[in-house]
Amino acid sequence: MTIEVKVPTLGESVTEATVATWFKKPGDSVAQDEMLCELETDKVTVEVPSPAAGTLSEIVAQEGETVGVDALLATIGEGEGAGAAEAPTKDAPKAEQSADNAPAQTKPDTSGDTTDVMVPALGESVSEATVATWFKKLGDTVAADEMLCELETDKVSVEVPAPAAGTLTEIVAREGETVAAGGKLAVIAGGEGAAPRAEAPQEASAPSDRSGADVEDAPSAKKLMAEKGLTSDQVTGTGRDGRVMKEDVLKAASAATEAPAPQAKQAPRAPVAAGDEGREERVKMTRLRQTIARRLKDAQNTAAMLTTYNEVDMKAIMDLRDEYKELFQKKHGVKLGFMSFFTKACVHALREVPEVNAEIDGTDVVYKNFVHMGIATGTPQGLVVPVIHDADAMSFAEIEKAIADKGRAARDGKLSMADMQGGTFTISNGGVYGSLMSSPILNPPQSGILGMHKIQDRPVVIGGKIKVRPMMYLALSYDHRIVDGKGAVTFLVRVKEALEDPRRLLMDL
């Protein structure tokens, strides 16, 4: 049987990559999930694991070649590697069977009376996660589909249920460890009296496991070791079979700089004053928070970001909402809020200024003939942006229902990857927290984001007279590489006009 190794999904708007390095050559035995090669895109480096155990029969795409998504990279045939992939030889045929019928990582591997708990599919372009919380401990009895642990990716949290009933006998990946999609998390024995394995917690980090084993360190770890002047002997690997990961190199590098501290460099942090020890708390950033920080900084470094401001008189919408909110809720089963008005107003303006709804891809401008509206939502874990797909084809009631559903899922940590992909424009409402004025940061690769703010009574001049009106500041941040100042100002003026006179939305003016 021949198994094909293909180019994985490379991420949103990335369609091709270059084969950078092959770690194996034809004829080599490979284990399942062992790294075969490394691909480089214009944004990230992608490692390609072996989908099954066997022998590398043929390399189709050589180093330096450009390949598209789902292109054939190599083929793997049956051979010595099939028997060496996993410790129990009798499991190899089962691995082949699951490769034929379904992705091996999503199907529990049962051998004898034990069942492996595997990392589930994490979503498009997500290859690893961090073990956040174990709800069970060694020796606990678990029921089928009972929640065992929670994984945290850079986008969503994923709960892992027990694939079968039994006793938790081994925890392979402890809290805080990084695991790859399809990696092994734990082992369940098929009975209540099975004894947990005593040595399990030390297996992942024992440096002696590397000796004599042909384990490839992560390419990102190799590059970082070269930059830091470290060797693999100086780094304790926490990956599979003692594989050195990037996080391991960072830990080793920080330990090396902290250990001998003879007045080398001035510490970046201010010294802790006497008596303040114990009053600080150092907490590792969650993967979601790290991703938020990285994406926001990338947006600032990449886009020529500029913000234009205006203000809108909210009286017309507030009067309309007060008049129809009870009838609206009675008929549609959802409250009439402000977000549906803003969404409709933005859709109306995007039709007139399509570049605000476009994105840059290399040297091309990609115009979207639809609107997938991102609605920025604050959660206890951080800011997420669920997407209302095809908002331009929705009614007020459909938009309000979609926003309510996505907001509830965001707060409960139940958003899927599909819920947060494909956005073409974003609305962020800082006014719910009391913000009077701000400059929102773009959500790449989008070219525009509208910032809403607090509604505040202010004196304004209307018809030569001073009147008190509920006013809101609006802010449009845009990518000046693709959106000119005229287009940005026109967009914001059209939003203002539609909100101050909602009848314009009905008449498409």
Automatic annotation (TrEMBL):
<dbReference type="InterPro" id="IPR006255">
    <property type="entry name" value="SucB"/>
</dbReference>
<dbReference type="InterPro" id="IPR036625">
    <property type="entry name" value="E3-bd_dom_sf"/>
</dbReference>
<feature type="region of interest" description="Disordered">
    <location>
        <begin position="193"/>
        <end position="219"/>
    </location>
</feature>
<dbReference type="InterPro" id="IPR001078">
    <property type="entry name" value="2-oxoacid_DH_actylTfrase"/>
</dbReference>
<keyword id="KW-0816">Tricarboxylic acid cycle</keyword>
<comment type="subunit">
    <text>Forms a 24-polypeptide structural core with octahedral symmetry. Part of the 2-oxoglutarate dehydrogenase (OGDH) complex composed of E1 (2-oxoglutarate dehydrogenase), E2 (dihydrolipoamide succinyltransferase) and E3 (dihydrolipoamide dehydrogenase); the complex contains multiple copies of the three enzymatic components (E1, E2 and E3).</text>
</comment>
<dbReference type="InterPro" id="IPR011053">
    <property type="entry name" value="Single_hybrid_motif"/>
</dbReference>
<comment type="similarity">
    <text>Belongs to the 2-oxoacid dehydrogenase family.</text>
</comment>
<dbReference type="InterPro" id="IPR004167">
    <property type="entry name" value="PSBD"/>
</dbReference>
<keyword id="KW-0012">Acyltransferase</keyword>
<feature type="region of interest" description="Disordered">
    <location>
        <begin position="81"/>
        <end position="114"/>
    </location>
</feature>
<dbReference type="Pfam" id="PF00198">
    <property type="entry name" value="2-oxoacid_dh"/>
</dbReference>
<feature type="region of interest" description="Disordered">
    <location>
        <begin position="252"/>
        <end position="283"/>
    </location>
</feature>
<dbReference type="GO" id="GO:0006099">
    <property type="term" value="P:tricarboxylic acid cycle"/>
</dbReference>
<dbReference type="InterPro" id="IPR050537">
    <property type="entry name" value="2-oxoacid_dehydrogenase"/>
</dbReference>
<dbReference type="Pfam" id="PF00364">
    <property type="entry name" value="Biotin_lipoyl"/>
</dbReference>
<dbReference type="GO" id="GO:0005829">
    <property type="term" value="C:cytosol"/>
</dbReference>
<protein>
    <recommendedName>
        <fullName>Dihydrolipoyllysine-residue succinyltransferase component of 2-oxoglutarate dehydrogenase complex</fullName>
        <ecNumber>2.3.1.61</ecNumber>
    </recommendedName>
</protein>
<keyword id="KW-0450">Lipoyl</keyword>
<dbReference type="GO" id="GO:0045252">
    <property type="term" value="C:oxoglutarate dehydrogenase complex"/>
</dbReference>
<dbReference type="InterPro" id="IPR023213">
    <property type="entry name" value="CAT-like_dom_sf"/>
</dbReference>
<comment type="pathway">
    <text>Amino-acid degradation; L-lysine degradation via saccharopine pathway; glutaryl-CoA from L-lysine: step 6/6.</text>
</comment>
<feature type="domain" description="Lipoyl-binding">
    <location>
        <begin position="114"/>
        <end position="189"/>
    </location>
</feature>
<feature type="compositionally biased region" description="Polar residues">
    <location>
        <begin position="98"/>
        <end position="114"/>
    </location>
</feature>
<keyword id="KW-0808">Transferase</keyword>
<comment type="function">
    <text>E2 component of the 2-oxoglutarate dehydrogenase (OGDH) complex which catalyzes the second step in the conversion of 2-oxoglutarate to succinyl-CoA and CO(2).</text>
</comment>
<feature type="domain" description="Peripheral subunit-binding (PSBD)">
    <location>
        <begin position="216"/>
        <end position="253"/>
    </location>
</feature>
<dbReference type="GO" id="GO:0004149">
    <property type="term" value="F:dihydrolipoyllysine-residue succinyltransferase activity"/>
</dbReference>
<feature type="region of interest" description="Disordered">
    <location>
        <begin position="224"/>
        <end position="243"/>
    </location>
</feature>
<feature type="domain" description="Lipoyl-binding">
    <location>
        <begin position="2"/>
        <end position="77"/>
    </location>
</feature>
<feature type="compositionally biased region" description="Low complexity">
    <location>
        <begin position="252"/>
        <end position="274"/>
    </location>
</feature>
<feature type="compositionally biased region" description="Low complexity">
    <location>
        <begin position="194"/>
        <end position="207"/>
    </location>
</feature>
<dbReference type="Pfam" id="PF02817">
    <property type="entry name" value="E3_binding"/>
</dbReference>
<dbReference type="InterPro" id="IPR000089">
    <property type="entry name" value="Biotin_lipoyl"/>
</dbReference>
<dbReference type="GO" id="GO:0033512">
    <property type="term" value="P:L-lysine catabolic process to acetyl-CoA via saccharopine"/>
</dbReference>
